[in-house]
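Working notes for the structural subgroup meeting. M.R. asked for a predicted model of this chain before we commit to crystallization trials. I am recording the input and output together here so anyone reviewing the notebook later can reproduce the run.

Input as submitted:
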Amino acid sequence: MKKIYIITILFLLAIYTNATPLDSAKTLFNEGKYQEALPIFNEQLAQSPKDASLNKYAGMCLFHLNKYSEAQPFLQSANSNGIAESAKYLAIIAMKEYRFNDADKYLSNYKSSLSKSGAEIPAEVEKLSSQIMNARNMLERVEQIQIIDSINVDSKTFFNFYKLSNDVGSLNATSILPSNFAAAQPTVVFSPESKTKMYWAMSDSTNNSFIVSSSILSDGIWEAPLKLGDVLNDGGNANYPYIMPDGVTIYFANDGANSIGGYDIFISRYDEDGYLQPLNLGMPYNSPSNDYMLVIDENTGIGWWATDRNNIEGKITIYMFIPSDTRVNYPSDSPNIVNLAKINAIKDTWLENANYNELLDKLNNIASPNNSLSTTQFTLNLSNGKIYHNISDFKNSEAAVAMQEYLDALDKLNNNKHTLNSLRLKYSQGDKSVANQILSLEKQILKEQEELIRLQNIAISLEVK
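Returned structure, recorded in token form:
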């Protein structure tokens, strides 16, 4: 037996030792380590520049690193040499560059190659085809809006940078929810001025998110979350809700059938039968990337929305614009229609001789965003004797991010504790089948408690260094 074991080990070592650089690169690629795999593929390409497979892998590495313009020539080479899958990625790149006709051609070629080989066309490819068609139609109806400013901020705490007047309500981290309330990760909790309601997204057992609300009862307890309506999901995930002060109009994000890639921003209104069929806001609000959390502040006359269309790692862009009651679109034959839809430069959206200083002054007069339902989100004792109660107390942006991670981890821990209590109750009532779940969750909770201490220490050390 011992001899067989030794032979097996030697055999595995031989395989590992004889692994080629290309094998290593493919392993790294399959593990999602594209930055590490890319140099190896490039070395191999230097020896065989026309190798279709190597061009495909190099192109896909660059694609997954969001370096679309660099990925394109590699994928084109692979595509011209018979790698059908390359056409799908070329279609996505063309889509992100607003070359919708090219995207349609690439995807049609890919679908044709699948059909010829007898392979079934994946649902994701059909969805991409629908997105291309939607985007091409939207490009003919780009709304003429004035974007007065933009900022790039950390993607995890972006909502802290919306400067909203008190009458609008507040945007909050999920840590503001009662400990027994679950939340999608990520999401933002919106509460109107009255602070008697909350809106956010939860996830079901398949990890699809939907929008819920909760109202505070007369005894100070928050009622169980209620789903706003399946119509808001439209076959996808619904998230990032904002309710206008009229209590009827909702802006939210959805990545379903009527989006053009990632989250798109939609509007719906509530009547006696529930929420009406949502309407996609179109361009320039939406893009082939993620666009979400649109808020309109009628007091300042400024609207806000967030997007990751600019591909800045770890950051998102927030645009501030002037809302209008009446939609006016640019002429569809405008020579710079693509630039206006993409928002290549916010100055392109400004009216001639317009002065936006008064609006920007209104923002500056809002000293600090009102982003909490109460004055205290947490109590954090720093080593220098100071005590913080809100994310906005942090001076160091990295410390604020670490603290937000702490709050998200705390929220997850509380959800798991609630689940553990439910499982223990089932066990006590005779359901012994949950025993392994209880043991597993107990171990997970111990790890999460250790992680909380680590994140808190990081936040403190970054803030006081």
